[in-house]
Amino acid sequence: MHNKRLSVSSLIEPTWHCTQLGDESCNSASSDICQLSNNSWSWDFPVHTSIISEWGLECASSLVKGLPASSFFMGCLAGGFILATLADSSLGRKNTLFLSCLIMSLSSLLTIFSTNVWIYSVLKFVNGFGRATIGTCAMVLSTELVGKKWRGQVGTIGFFCFALGFLSLPAIAYINRGSSWRTLYFWTSTPTFLYSILVPFFVRESPRWLFVQGRTEEAVLIIKSIASTNQNISRISFSNLCFERETRNNVDHLYTAIKILAEKNWSIRRLSVVMVAGFGMGMVYYGMPLGLGNLSFNLYLSVTLNALSELPSSLVTFFIIGKLKRRSSLLGFTILSGICSVMCIVAGKVSATLQIGLEVVSYFSACTALDLMLIYTLELFPTCVRNSAISLMRQAVLLGGAISPVLVAAGRKNGFLSFGVFGLMIGICGLFVISLPETRDRPISDTMDEEEYKFEYDNIS
What we know:
69% helix, MFS_dom, membrane, Major facilitator superfamily (MFS) profile domain-containing protein, MFS_trans_sf
C-alpha cells in the first residue's frame, strides 16, 4: 500500500505558468497545455519532481499515464496468487516474507534508474508482485507464534504499524518537496531493504507450519529457543509434543493449498463468504478516499481526516478483538459504515461538516471491519492453507478497490452511484458473515481434518 501511495505522488502532474507576458492565448487556468507551443509555458517546479514532467507525459493518453498504477495492481494480483501459496507449501512463512521484502525493496531501488514510463511500469509490476503477500505473511507468522489469548492483539499490531508507516509518507514527501521523485523512492525503499536483510537472522519460522510439514526437529528447536526466555516454560519437556500432519500428497506443489481448499465444501463456503465480505470492504476502503473530491468539504482537510482515522481504527481493533465476538463485531461495523455512507448523499444538502463527519465515521468503520476480517479469516482456516486463504481474501479487497474508481467517476454527476453504492455493498456483503462459525477464544487448527472435526463437533454441541 505504501508504494501505491508513493506512486501517486510521483504521478502528480505539476502546475505550470505562462512564460510570455501579454500572450492572450496562454492561460494557466483554462488553456490546454497540449495546444500551446513549448516556449510559451513552463513548469512551476523542476521537471524531476514528477515522471509526468520529466518524461514529457503531459499530453500522453490516460492509458499511458495510468499504466504504472495499473501495473502495480496487476503485480499485486499475480503475487497474491503465487507467493501466498508458496508460504503454505515449500518456502514457508519466514522465507516467503524474506523473498517478498527483497523483491519489493530491490524493485523500488531499481525504479530510481528508470529512463521511461515503460521501464517504470515494469518495475511497478515487480514491486506489486513482491508487496502482495508481505502483510499476510507477517500477520500469519506472528499469530502462529502465540497462543489464543494474545492472537488477536498480536495480529492487530501489524495494522497499527501499517497506519504509522502510511502516516509517515506525507512527512517524508513534505521534507523532500521540490526534490526528485527518485529521492522519495530512495528514502522509502532503503528501510525495507535493510529489514529484508534482518529477516533471516531475527525472524523465526512458524513451528505450526514446520510440524504440519513433518519437520518436527526444527519445530522443537524453535519452540525451545522461544521457551528459553521463560524459566518456567523452559523446564517443560517437548519430547511428547504431537501435531497432526496434512496427509495429502504432493504437499510441496505450488497450488496444493488452493487444491486443498477446494476439496471441502465447508472451506469453499467459508472462503466465498470472506471474499464477498472483503470485496464490499475493499470498495469503501479504496473508494472513499478517491471520492472525497465529490464532497462539499475542503479536499485537503478531508484527506487528512481519512488518513488519521486509520490509526484509531487499529487501536480500537486492538482493544475489542479479545472482548467481542467476531460475527457481531463485523456486522455492527459494516452496517454502520453502510448507513453513514448512504447518509453522506443527503447530508451534503444540509451541511458540509455533517457530510464529512459521516464520511469519516463510515471510513473508520470500514477500516475497523477490514482489520477484524483479516483476524477472523486466519482463525477460520488451518495452518496448511491459512496464508493462501487470507491472500485470496485480500485479492477480493483489491478487486473491490479496482472497481471503485469507476463508481467515483460516475458519482461526480450522481452521488448515489459512488457513496450510495459503497454503502449498499459493504452493508449487504457484510451480512454474509452470519453464516460463518464463531472463532473467538477457540484454538486454531493445523490441518483440514482437525478443523473439520471441530466444525462438526461445534454443530453437534
